C-alpha cells in the first residue's frame, strides 16, 4: 500500500507554468479516483522561480486544491531552488510520519535524474514506485517529454553535477543540537597524535535517534551515506584531519586486524598503522571504541570491541599487530577505552555471561539471574593487562580523577551519546579516531 505520493513539477516547461493550477487539479483528481492509493500523504515538488516575491508559493497553488477535502489536510507543496533541497525537505516529512512506501509521479525525462537523487538521499529502508506524469493524467497538455529508452543511464558528468548539488546543499545546513564536541584523553600525547571520541552533537542528522552527528549509515537506517559523509567532513574540519585519508574498521564482531598498507581483509574489528596523516576510526554505540598509541615507535591503532569481540580478544589482537608489524614494545603502548555501555545498564543472557565470569567474577553482577549485568570494560582491561599492557597505560572508567573520565556510559547519557541498547534498531553511531601527526 502506497503511503505517500510525490508529484514532481520541478521542471515544467514555460507553457505549462501558467496552467499549473489546472495541472495539479488533474493530477489530484486522478489520485483521488485511484483505488490503489487510499488517502496517502501528497507532496508537490516545485521550483521556486528566481525573481519571484519572497512569499510562500503555497498561496499561489492552493486554489488548485479546493474541492479535494479528503486530500487537503495531507497535501503539502514544497518549493525550493534545487531538486536536492526540495527532495531532502520531503524526506524530512516522510521521516516525521515514519513513511517508507512512496509513489513518484513525474515527467519521463526526469525519471533517471530522480533515481540518482533518491539513490543518494535515501537508503534501502524506503521503497519507491515510479509513474509517468503523462500516463497518470489523461490531459493532452501533460505530454511533457518524449520517453527515454528503458534502462538508459545518465552520463557520468550529470551524476557528478547531482552529487555536487547535494553536497553543497548539505554543507549549507545548520548544525543541530549544539556545537560539535570531541572528547580527548590526557593519556595520549597530543604533540604526536591527533585523537578523540565524538559525541552526538554538531551534525545534520535530524531523525531523533540519529541526531545529530551520526557517523554510520546502513541499509537498515534512515540516515543516508551522504549525510554521514557531511557529518564526517564537519568532524574532520573541527578535529584537523583529512577526511579523504580516513579508514574505519569493517565490523565483524570478531578479532581480525587490518594492517594499513597490506591486503585489506573483508571484515575486521581492529586496524593499525605507522603512516602519518592517516586517520583510523572505530565506531561505537554501546560497543567500546578503543584507541591505541605508541609514542616511542610512533604507531597507532583503533578497535571496535563489543561483547563478542571482547571475549575473542580483539584489543590484544590489535596490540599484537602493533608489536609484530612495527616493533612496538608492549610497555610503551597506551590504550584508551571510549564511551560505551556501562555495567550499570548492560545485560546479557546467562550463557554469555558465563564467559565473562570465567575472565573474572567481578565482570558480572547478579550472575545467577537470567540476564546478568556485564562489565565489558573491566574484561577488556583484564585481558590487556594479562597480555602485557601496563595498568597505568590503560584509561577507562576506573580513572580516579573523574574530571579526566571520558569512558561514559552511552545508555545513561542520551543527550551526549547514541545507544543501540537504549534506542533500538534505528540507532546512531559515534566513533573513536586517531592518527599520527605530520
From TrEMBL:
GO cellular component, one term: nucleus
Gene3D superfamilies the UniProt entry points to: CNF1/YfiH-like putative cysteine hydrolases (3.60.140.10)
SUPFAM superfamilies: CNF1/YfiH-like putative cysteine hydrolases
Top-rank taxon: Eukaryota
Location of the protein in the cell: Cytoplasm; Endoplasmic reticulum; Nucleus; Peroxisome
Keywords from the UniProt entry: Acetylation, Cytoplasm, Endoplasmic reticulum, Hydrolase, Immunity, Inflammatory response, Innate immunity, Metal-binding, Nucleus, Peroxisome, Phosphoprotein, Transferase, Zinc
This protein's record includes keyword Ligase: no
Protein's GO biological process: inflammatory response; innate immune response; regulation of defense response
Pfam families: Cu-oxidase_4 (PF02578)
EC number, as in UniProt: 2.4.2.1, 2.4.2.28, 3.5.4.4
Reaction equation(s) it catalyzes: adenosine + phosphate = alpha-D-ribose 1-phosphate + adenine; inosine + phosphate = alpha-D-ribose 1-phosphate + hypoxanthine; S-methyl-5'-thioadenosine + phosphate = 5-(methylsulfanyl)-alpha-D-ribose 1-phosphate + adenine; adenosine + H2O + H(+) = inosine + NH4(+)
GO molecular function, one term: S-methyl-5-thioadenosine phosphorylase activity
Homology family: Belongs to the purine nucleoside phosphorylase YfiH/LACC1 family.
PANTHER family: PURINE NUCLEOSIDE PHOSPHORYLASE LACC1, UNCHARACTERIZED PROTEIN YFIH
Subunit relationships: Interacts with FASN. Interacts with SDHA. Interacts with ATF6, EIF2AK3 and ERN1.
Official protein name in the record: Purine nucleoside phosphorylase LACC1
Amino acid at each position: 500500500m502506497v503511503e505517500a505520493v510525490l508529484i514532481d513539477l520541478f521542471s515544467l516547461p514555460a507553457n505549462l507554468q501558467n496552467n499549473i493550477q489546472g495541472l495539479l487539479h488533474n493530477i489530484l483528481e486522478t489520485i483521488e479516483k485511484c483505488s490503489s492509493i487510499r488517502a496517502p500523504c501528497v507532496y508537490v515538488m516545485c521550483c521556486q522561480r528566481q525573481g519571484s516575491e519572497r512569499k510562500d508559493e503555497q498561496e499561489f497553488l492552493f486554489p488548485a486544491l479546493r474541492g479535494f477535502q479528503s486530500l487537503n489536510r495531507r497535501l503539502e507543496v514544497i518549493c525550493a531552488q534545487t531538486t536536492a533541497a526540495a527532495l531532502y525537505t520531503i524526506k524530512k516529512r516522510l521521516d516525521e510520519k515514519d513513511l517508507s512506501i512512496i509513489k513518484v509521479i513525474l515527467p519521463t525525462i526526469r525519471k533517471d535524474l530522480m533515481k540518482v537523487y533518491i539513490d543518494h538521499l535515501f537508503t534501502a529502508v524506503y521503497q519507491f514506485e515510479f509513474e509517468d506524469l503523462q500516463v497518470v493524467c489523461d490531459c493532452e497538455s501533460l505530454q511533457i517529454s518524449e520517453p527515454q529508452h528503458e534502462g538508459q543511464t545518465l552520463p557520468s558528468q550529470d551524476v557528478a553535477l547531482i552529487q555536487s548539488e547535494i553536497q553543497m546543499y548539505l554543507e549549507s545546513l545548520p548544525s543541530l543540537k549544539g556545537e560539535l564536541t570531541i572528547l580527548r584523553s590526557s593519556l595520549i600525547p597530543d604533540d604526536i597524535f591527533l585523537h578523540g571520541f565524538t559525541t552526538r552533537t554538531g551534525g545534520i542528522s535530524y531523525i531523533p535517534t540519529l541526531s545529530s552527528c551520526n557517523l554510520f549509515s546502513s541499509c537498515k537506517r534512515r540516515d543516508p551515506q551522504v549525510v554521514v559523509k557531511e557529518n564526517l567532513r564537519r568532524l574532520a574540519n573541527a578535529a584537523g584531519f583529512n577526511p579523504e585519508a580516513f579508514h574505519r574498521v569493517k565490523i565483524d564482531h570478531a578479532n581480525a586486524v587490518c594492517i594499513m598498507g597490506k591486503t585489506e581483509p573483508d571484515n575486521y574489528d581492529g586496524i593499525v598503522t605507522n603512516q602519518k596523516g592517516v586517520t583510523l576510526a572505530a565506531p561505537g554505540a554501546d560497543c567500546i571504541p578503543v584507541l591505541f598509541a605508541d609514542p616511542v615507535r610512533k604507531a597507532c591503532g583503533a578497535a571496535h570491541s563489543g561483547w563478542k569481540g571482547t571475549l575473542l580478544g580483539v584489543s590484544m589482537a590489535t596490540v599484537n599487530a602493533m608489536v609484530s608489524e612495527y616493533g612496538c614494545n608492549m610497555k610503551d603502548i597506551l590504550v584508551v577505552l571510549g564511551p560505551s555501555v556501562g555495567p550499570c545498564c548492560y545485560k546479557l543472557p546467562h550463557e554469555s555471561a558465563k564467559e565473562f565470569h570465567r575472565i573474572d567474577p567481578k565482570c558480572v553482577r547478579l550472575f545467577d539471574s537470567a540476564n546478568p549485568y556485564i562489565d565489558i570494560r573491566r574484561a577488556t582491561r583484564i585481558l590487556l593487562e594479562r597480555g602485557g599492557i601496563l595498568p597505568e597505560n590503560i584509561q577507562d572508567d576506573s580513572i580516579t580523577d573523574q574530571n579526566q573520565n571520558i569512558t561514559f556510559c552511552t545508555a545513561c547519557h542520551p543527550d551526549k551519546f547514541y545507544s543501540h541498547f537504549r534506542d533500538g534498531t534505528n540507532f546512531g553511531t559515534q566513533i573513536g579516531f586517531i592518527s599520527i601527526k605530520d
